[in-house]
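Reply to dn_fold:

You asked what the input looked like. This is it:
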Amino acid sequence: MPLPRPPLLLLGVVLVSFGRGRFCGSPANSLCYSYLHLPEPSQGLPHFSIRGYLDDQPMARYDSLIRKMEPLVPWVEEEDTSFQVLEWVIGIDLEKLSKLDHQTGGPHTWQAILGCELWEDGSKGGFLHYGYDGRDFISFDKETLRWVAAQPQAEKVKEEWEIHPGWSQRKKTYLEETCIEWLQRYQLSKKEASQKIEPPVGKVTCKEVDDHLEVLICQAFGFYPKQIQATWTRDGEACVYETLPRNVAPNSDGTYYVWLSIEIDPKERDHFRCRLEHQGLQEPLILAWKEETARIWWIVNAIGACTILAAGILLFLICWKRRKKLHQEETTCCGQVPPEMVRSPLSTQDDIQIE
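and this is what came back:
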């Protein structure tokens, strides 16, 4: 199946994204990777880049410049190592293929599309195709461990690769086992994430610095997953440079919180809003500082302080009464005779009558 013609990008370098077609858009659950290799990249472009898809949905990307997987969806963890494994699986093949450029000259691109499929009845599928300048070049038949040449130049490559069946067997193992394991792992993560979505709860507080400066603080907490977009706006326009953001941090219950502040002129306060965008919100949450809200928070804090003070006074009275009682008991035990047992000093032995 011919691949789509590539668009022309910077410096005349042809960058191609494979048409996913039946490979990544099949009725089965599928995991698919699109790989672009530039043997001689120009300045600012990566030597290679990879983009991953789950059931035709872009989920992550990875390239030679950052050497770090970037999630495109919240259910992919940043510690994911599948892209490093993939780089090794097809990297050596593309290094061998890129040597053909010396025979033709000029800038060229190599592409690869590979992945696996898992059907409801448990059957598995896998595919691996290499392309050259946007056209099919050679593909792998995992059932026969043979390579299928799509162009005359690929016949020599086919002969060289089929001399080493062990290399082809490792490709088959990756497609039927490793890729399927990652497919099932991603499906589980996506399912768990969809069942645990908590929208953020937000509030805006104000801290007065002086008559001409105050700090508005926007807080969002209790949300999951971690990805959130929090922005201060002035009359609807994002305040990028004036905002002092803070990193998203975890709560003990597994949710997250974040806050960001902005310094403003108190006279301009009504022009500022905090905008929160999150997967758990049907629409952005717009927050503004209100004096009524501030008064409520002051009352809540005052009630809390009074409660703590009352509890302290009650605890003091209990301890004081208990200490007084202990003092009385200690006095009795140390030899003090009760009044009724004390004889008058005027009484003598002579006062005793003998019958």
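The first helix runs from residue 21 to 24.
Hope that clears it up.
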